[in-house]
Inverse folding.
């Protein structure tokens, strides 16, 4: 009897195992067919079951922007593809789907025509909420509009003049020139120019935003708790985008890894900002924070979010663009020569032929406004190396892009600003060539923006176009002219210039340079050509893409 019962149980167990095995086989087969159909409908990089295109993203994380550009280039004139980061039934066609584009017509559609249908979205806002809250770069609707209207009053011509005199030029004269002078002619590891630029723009934007100068650009280059904590908080926040939201939320609940670092960093940031806000409540000034205080009775946490959003935007973008500009100039003596010749032409008219007077003070507002070639060179830098290389939006409702791509509600759309400037179909066959002249009038005496605004979105587009665009150009021209007037820069031999996976296009290893004195006498005697004697035109590198960057660094 027991033997019969045992045999019956074994038969039942075997039947269950067969049933489960058959069910699994059916599910796997069904999934395989479904996955095959999905992959045939999408045009992006290779996808894998369950994990989608994430393996490609991870494998190319240190060259992510070039990888995306290559994928977009492979689509031909469409300049758009769709991929899936979570290929699971009922999820893949919405939350897991990502549309990637650099097509100017699609960009105009998303950023202007259907602006209301493409907000930041819940994933972006939840990831950045701890750091940026409901600040201007992490909000939509009425909250965003109120902050933008209030902040717009801070970017008039009058306030730009004041900003240059009070913050930028003072920092250049009393700090940047002194530090570069201390390193001038000194052999060794050189100085990290990207770090100096980050410190300078950080001090400036803190002064403009809440009237407090953290003095990170001091001769001894001190560690600043607020600046360090702000950097660490930004890095930890960006890590939230590497994996599905449930992972970082679990880490936050457990207080481990990057979430633990984020919490500690935010405590330092909160303490610093609490003191800055309290000081401004007692003694209001003409800075951005004071303007918001006068506008309404904002709680302290809201004021902190507002201030931090502007600090994030104003520090990284200008310093990153300047780093790539100086790196380019070091490889292109012809561009450097033209920039200096233009500056010299202006200063001879405003300050005379005594070159010592040229470097007594940084250029003022009116002098900077006349530097059209320098502005063109900066615009060309931003075309190839935009400070914010990509951005993402969330589709509220089903939509169809101008090129026919269907975008389902709940899915994400990423527009690659980095790729826009590197597509032949958008900028022509010389798209990879660094050529400032493309931004000048036929006579070369006037800066001409791109006729199609969505071919150049380094400052975003539509209603969210960067409020600080004019300030950014002004600050970059001021710093670039001040550095080049006094010094020649040379890349430290063996220093490798690489892009960093970040919200902005940082150089992973910084920009280490040797600082040499500049001889301006040739611009008075008419011997400017001597500046190019070591770099004849036929040896000047015309292309500055990623491969050229790596080769140039290796050759150095």
């Amino acid at each position: 009897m027991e033997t019969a019962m045992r045999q019956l149980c074994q038969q039942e167990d075997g039947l269950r195992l067969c049933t489960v095995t058959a069910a699994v086989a059916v599910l796997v087969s069904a999934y395989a067919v479904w996955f095959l159909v999905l992959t045939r409908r999408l045009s992006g990089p290779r996808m894998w079951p369950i994990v989608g295109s994430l393996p490609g993203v991870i494998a190319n994380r240190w060259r992510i922007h070039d990888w995306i550009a290559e994928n977009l280039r492979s689509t031909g004139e469409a300049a758009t593809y769709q991929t899936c980061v979570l290929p699971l039934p009922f999820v893949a066609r919405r939350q897991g789907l990502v549309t990637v584009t650099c097509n100017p017509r699609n960009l105009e559609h998303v950023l202007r025509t259907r602006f209301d249908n493409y907000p930041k979205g819940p994933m972006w806002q939840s990831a950045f909420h701890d750091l940026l809250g409901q600040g201007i770069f992490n909000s939509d609707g009425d909250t965003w509009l109120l902050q933008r209207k209030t902040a717009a009053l801070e970017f008039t011509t009058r306030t730009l003049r004041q900003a240059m005199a009070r913050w930028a030029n003072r920092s250049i004269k009393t700090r940047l020139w002194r530090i570069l002078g201390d390193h001038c002619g000194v052999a060794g590891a050189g100085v990290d120019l990207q770090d100096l630029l980050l410190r300078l723009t950080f001090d400036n934007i803190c002064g403009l935003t809440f009237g407090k100068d953290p003095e990170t650009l001091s001769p001894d280059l001190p560690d600043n708790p607020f600046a360090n904590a702000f950097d660490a908080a930004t890095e930890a926040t960006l890590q939230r985008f590497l994996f599905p939201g449930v992972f970082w939320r679990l880490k936050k609940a457990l207080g481990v890894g990057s979430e633990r670092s984020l919490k500690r960093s935010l405590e330092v940031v909160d303490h610093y900002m609490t003191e800055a806000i309290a000081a401004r409540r007692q003694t209001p000034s003409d800075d951005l924070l004071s303007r918001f205080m006068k506008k309404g009775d904002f709680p302290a946490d809201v004021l902190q979010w507002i201030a931090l959003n502007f600090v994030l935007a104003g520090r990284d973008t200008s310093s990153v663009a300047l780093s790539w500009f100086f790196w380019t100039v070091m490889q292109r003596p012809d561009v450097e020569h033209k920039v200096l010749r233009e500056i010299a032409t202006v200063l001879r008219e405003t300050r005379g032929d005594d070159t010592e007077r040229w470097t007594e003070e940084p250029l003022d507002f009116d002098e900077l406004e006349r530097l059209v070639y320098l502005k063109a060179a900066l615009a060309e830098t931003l075309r190839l190396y935009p400070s914010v290389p990509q951005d993402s939006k969330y589709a509220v409702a089903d939509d169809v892009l101008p090129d026919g791509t269907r975008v389902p509600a709940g899915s994400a759309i990423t527009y690659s600003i980095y790729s826009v400037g590197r597509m032949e179909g958008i900028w022509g066959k010389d798209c990879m060539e660094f050529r400032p002249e493309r931004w000048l009038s036929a006579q070369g005496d006037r800066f001409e923006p791109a006729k199609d605004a969505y071919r150049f979105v380094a400052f975003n587009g539509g209603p969210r176009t960067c409020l600080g665009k004019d300030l950014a150009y002004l600050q970059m021209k001021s710093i670039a002219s001040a550095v080049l007037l006094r010094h020649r820069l040379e890349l430290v031999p063996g220093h490798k210039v690489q892009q960093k996976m970040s919200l902005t296009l940082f150089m992973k290893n910084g920009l280490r340079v040797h600082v040499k004195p500049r001889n301006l006498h040739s611009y008075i005697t008419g011997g400017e050509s001597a500046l190019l004697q070591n770099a004849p035109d036929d040896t000047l590198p015309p292309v500055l893409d990623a491969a050229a960057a790596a080769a140039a660094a290796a050759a150095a």
